[in-house]
Fold this sequence. Notes:
The protein is an alpha/beta fold and 321 residues long. Helix content is 33%, strand content 27%.
Amino acid sequence: MNQAVTPAALSVRDLRKTYDNGVEALKGVSLDVVPGDFYALLGPNGAGKSTLIGIISSLVNKTAGEVRVFDVDIHAERSRAMRLLGLVPQELNFNMFEKPLDILVNYAGFYGIPRAEAIVRAEAELRSAQLWDKAQMMSRTLSGGMKRRLMIARAMMTRPRLLILDEPTAGVDIEIRRGMWQTLRRINASGTTIILTTHYLEEAENLCRNLAIIDHGRIVESGPMRSLLAKLDVEGFLLDVEDALPDTLPEIPGAEVRAVDAHTLDVDMPRAMDLNRVFAALDAAGIHVRSMRNKSNRLEELFVRMTGDATPAAAATGAAA
C-alpha cells in the first residue's frame, strides 16, 4: 500500500511574468516550501519578490508557469486556494477610523464566516496579538507596532495554512520588531507555514529555517539556512582598541583590516586563519585590542556575495525607516 505524499505548502514551477512595458520581472522561478516551514524570500529592490508574492496571492496575473498552495492550483481554483492562504502586505491597508474588533470581524465576513464565530475568533486573535485592550479604540490611535500586529491578527482570522508576510516589521524599532518575532514564532509553532520577505536580514537569520535568494527575476540560491551560512568561509570581527588608531593600518596577509572609527577595527579573515596572528600584527604596530565581538550578520555577507548588492546590508544594520 502506497503511503500518501503530503503536498508542498507552496509549489512554484517555471513562473514567469512580463509586464506590458516589457519588463521581465520573473524569469522562470521554481521553489517548494514544505508544510510547517518558516521560509525566507530575500532579494534587493526590483529583484522580483513583490511580483512573486503578488502572483501567489492572486493580486498579479502570471505570464506563464504554475503555482499551487497545498496542491490547489491558484489559477484553476482561485477561491479554494485563497482560503488556504493569508497575506500581510507591507502597506497598512485597513480603515484607520474602524476599531480593531470591527476590522477583524468584517474581514472574516468577506470569507463567509458567521458573525458570532467571527467575534469569538477576533477576541482570540486580538488577545494573541496583545491587542485585546485596544479592541474598541480607533485604529488610527494605535502605535506603529500595534498596527503591524493588527495586520497579522486580521490575516489569521481565516485560519490560513500558509501565511505570507511582506516586510512585516518595516518601519518599527528594534524592540517592537523582536516582540513581533515572538508572535510569528508562536504562529509557526501552531502549525502555520510562514513565508517571510524582509530587508532586515537579521530577521531572516533568526526566524527562518530555509530560504531562497531572488535577483533579477531568478532564484540565485536556495536551501537550508544553516547549509547556506556554512558556505561562508570568511569570519568577521569588530575589535575595540585602547588608543586612537594610526593613519596607516598594518597589512596582515590573508586578512582585511578597516577602520570603522578612531577606536574600532573591522577585520575579515578566513575561518581557518589563527586570530592570534592578527593580534600579534596589531600589537607590533602599537595597536592594543581591548575587546572583540563577532559581526552578527553572516546571512548579510551571503546575500551580498550572491547578488552583488550591498543595499540590503545597509538596511539590515541601519535604523528602521
